[in-house]
Predict the 3D structure of the following.
Amino acid sequence: MSRIEKVAIIGLDCAEPSLVFEKWLDDLPNLRRLTQAGLYGNLESCIPPITVPAWTCMAASKDPGTLGIYGFRNRKDNTYEGLRIATNLEVREPRIWDILGRAGKQSITVGVPQTFPIVRPPPGCQITSFLTPSVESEYTSPPQLKREIAEVVGEYMLDVKGFRTENKQWLLDQIYEMTDKRFKVCRHLLTTKPWDLFWMVEMGPDRIHHGFWQFMDKAHHRYKPGNPFENAIHDYYVYTDKLIGELLEVMDVETTAVWVVSDHGSKRMDGGFCFNDWLIREGLLVMKEPVSGKRKFNFADVDWSKTKVWGEGGYYGRCFINRAGREPRGTVPEREYESFRDELVAKIEALPDHEGQPMGSRAYKPEDIYDQVRNVAPDLVVIFGDLRWRSVGTVGNPDVYTFENDTGPDDANHAQQGMYILSHASLPTERRDVSLYDVAPTTLKMMGHPVPDDMRGTALV
Ligand SMILES: [Zn+2]
């Protein structure tokens, strides 16, 4: 049997294991074939299961606390000055292409989040991700690769611009165009450049879930039977499977182990919980003037001398305590901090949903779930209603429960379990649930490279 010389990682952002393995596997001949020679199952994401930092957690096998990256945007210090985008510059831990590069191995990475701006690129080729301002930016390494891409696909698409839209047919067309171009570029690179590690991430599954979940899921509060987009997500998975098949054709599968992975899964979203409005009601967040009408939460509007806590919106909630001696006008004294935080956990976990039923929310202390806690971590990482509810940061909403999204139409939230397939003829065929932290050590080991001791995951083979 051939030994493994190369590893290819096909990343499908947000691909949902229950759709792939339970519902549609018979319609996905290439993914099915991969599951027939190797391991597959759920890939437990990081907490929180968000694109940034999840892909970096996977590529470095480090948790968000150790990376010091808690979301797309992070507090830069303990002042009331807001958040900064977590770009490639914030990533201090080596990812597997860095480790392999030092050993002289060549990598091709396409679309992996947190690779822009390009600094110290590994040997090989790099195309940055959707978190790049535009194709006018320096989004390739080497820089002249940009011209080559334009010759292959015309204008490359880093993302669908304005994907939170009601213009669904336009959105669908854009997602297909983006995916098509990305796979075409990947086929081009795989056939023309030397490589040992190939890692691509396609954002299409994430965009289609957020934009089209209501049309597919009968349990979604906006679902309408017989709507024209009922099969949109299914058909896109089928199409992506075909593109994956075309990619496999240009790889030597005898000597290449192939992963198909997602950074987290997807589930219907029931609504949003207005975190800051709730904190205002509880008297824990005090604004300088009473809020009338929905608006953005601005630090400048807060009466910090009376405020104990504030929250951030997003697919999960972040809770920050206004701690004396840490925040400029902190109010929660050092000696009361822990008991106050425990009270807050109890309050959040006891929250009912809009019908008075238990919501099942969880609030985690960073030090309980991470190996290390670096940079400015939230005091609590809050998952509302098992991710069926998102966290809404705006203030002045009519109720603490909302069914409109403050950032545009969005039908789905992320799920804690992503998916994976790891396929090679030398592997046993087995369904086994593993962790996203296992991807990097497994890949290094398969490539005959030692696994660093400080990786959080373990090699599966
Ligand atoms: Zn994602």
User: Anything to note?
Assistant: The first helix runs from residue 17 to 23.
